[in-house]
Records
---
Amino acid sequence: MSVSGILHLVFGAVGFVALAAAAFAYAGWCRSIGEPRRSAVAIALGVLVLVGFFGGAAFAMIPLGVLLLWIAVLSGWVFLALAAAHVYAWSPHPVVAQRVPAA
């Protein structure tokens, strides 16, 4: 393995662990605002990111490793899309005149 390959793996691990940590933090926030389903989905996606990345790294030399890495990437993108859509819908409109009063 080359130096650049090792660095790719190390910084990939940092990125995927940070993505999973964001999913777990989002899950905690969802739980605190009374959204247990979203919390459970975020935890599941965070676990998939971690298992997919570290499993993919462990089995990098066989097709299973590539599949696990794809699962990690797709799980991360699904988490980011769901969380961004939820936070966008939950946040007040940036233009004060167009904000809808809270019910």
---
Amino acid sequence: MLAPPFVEWLMGLPPGWVTAEHLNLPRTAQLRALGNGVMPQQAAHALRLLLDDLTRLRLGLRAYRD
């Protein structure tokens, strides 16, 4: 059986991000929230790629104008 704290750890989230007792979420709701979430590392990588593309685009436009 899949344990929500293990999934939190796999996703790189801090302990209790979804599994904290004060949230009163049942196991199925915890797994659903984790399954629908985005890994912070994945989001950071996507942002880096987008920023690199934006930088290349802006540098290309400057070179075209000069």
